[in-house]
Design goal:
alpha/beta; Rossmann fold; 3 domains; 10 helices
């Protein structure tokens, strides 16, 4: 089941018998997930599991929900902001689903490859042991650590907890996994140091105000607003071209946590996606030659060989692209539209080593 189908089921938009059955099953499973979450918390609270502090400040970038909230472009923004302050950041991540297809060995997951492209030269260690990853970064000369997807991670202590909330679907259908998309209840926001509302350009101000009121029931920390602005196109050969250079209608594919947000961005940029020319894969999908053959056929039949995707997908599929297909990724940059002073103030107070 692709992300759109899952969202249709969980949101209640699908009312067929199968969808109702799935909602019932996930409703029965939700208390089981909650019990496991409570058990995990209690192990740290009672001291059965220990947290570890490293010798450099740690900034966690995470979220409350599964799926894409824009952590990767926002992490790139933080890297640049910290560098502008004279800091030397490094990135520690778990390395979920490292990249491996039928043409190359595992080389790090898609987020790492994207961040390598967006933040050249910035150390990035992937290790399920995030404490060990942080220690390695410190050995490489980093004076602060960005902990990717770290809000639910307890073992590595942090100095700041930044939580991203997608304005398009902020609270995961108001249910914990698997009935909804919430990893934790909204009350967990009390641990946050900063809330970042993302994709604010895709909803109206009354909706943003309603989201803010909900957040304010749980925390009074600063809330900033971010949009993801498309800047240019990147081809499989590495060529960067202006955003307006795209020749016309294109087939679209992606394997990301929030395909709806990407589709909306394409439409905002005037990219026409012909009917039936969209292919959605699961998040972190590993592409095969068979996958690309299907995409190639789709692009040839529907869009004169034009194919558009995300940078996260392009870095995984570029070795498979044939010369007959013009495959480009839309490059996107996180931009703070409200609350930039709050972000600067927070980063200026990150402890010096």
């Amino acid at each position: 089941m692709n992300p759109r189908d899952i969202d249709d089921v969980l949101s209640g938009r699908r009312q067929d018998l199968a969808a109702r059955g799935l909602r019932l099953a996930t409703t029965l499973a939700e208390p089981v997930y909650w019990s496991g979450l409570q058990l995990h918390r209690s192990r740290y609270r009672l001291g059965f599991k220990k947290t570890h502090r490293v010798s450099r400040p740690v900034i966690s970038i995470g979220n409350l929900t599964t799926g894409g909230t824009g952590k990767t472009p926002f992490t790139a923004l933080l890297v640049k902001q910290l560098q502008n302050l004279g800091r030397t950041p490094g990135i520690a991540s778990r390395g979920y689903k490292s990249l491996e297809n039928d043409t190359e060995p595992a080389t790090g997951n898609d987020e790492k490859l994207v961040l390598d492209q967006m933040c050249p030269g910035v150390p990035h260690i992937q290790n399920r042991n995030r404490v060990a990853a942080a220690e390695q970064l410190i050995e490489q000369g980093c004076d602060c650590i960005l902990l990717d997807d770290g809000f639910q991670h307890r073992r590595l202590q942090r100095d700041l907890d930044i939580v991203l909330i997608d304005a398009v679907n902020p609270f995961g259908h108001n249910h914990l996994l698997p009935r909804g998309l919430l990893r934790e209840p909204l009350s967990a926001l009390k641990r946050a140091s900063l809330i970042v509302l993302t994709r604010v350009d895709q909803v109206d101000r009354p909706a943003l105000d309603a989201i803010t009121r909900t957040i304010r029931r749980h925390t009074q920390v600063p809330i900033i607003e971010v949009r993801f602005a498309p800047t240019s196109w990147l081809s499989t050969t590495g060529a960067i071209t202006p955003l307006e250079s795209h020749p016309g209608p294109a087939a679209m594919f992606c394997g990301i946590g929030n395909p709806t947000g990407f589709t909306a961005t394409l439409k905002q940029c005037g990219i026409t996606i012909p009917e039936g020319a969209t292919k959605i894969f699961p998040d972190h999908h590993h592409y095969t030659r068979e996958d690309f053959e299907g995409l190639s056929t789709l692009a040839t039949q529907k869009a004169n060989g034009q194919l558009v995707t995300t940078l996260k997908d392009l870095v995984k599929i570029r070795e498979l692209v044939s010369v007959e297909i013009d495959c480009r990724a839309m490059l996107i940059e996180a931009m703070v539209t409200r609350g930039e002073d709050d972000l600067h103030r927070l980063l200026n107070h990150v402890p010096q080593p």
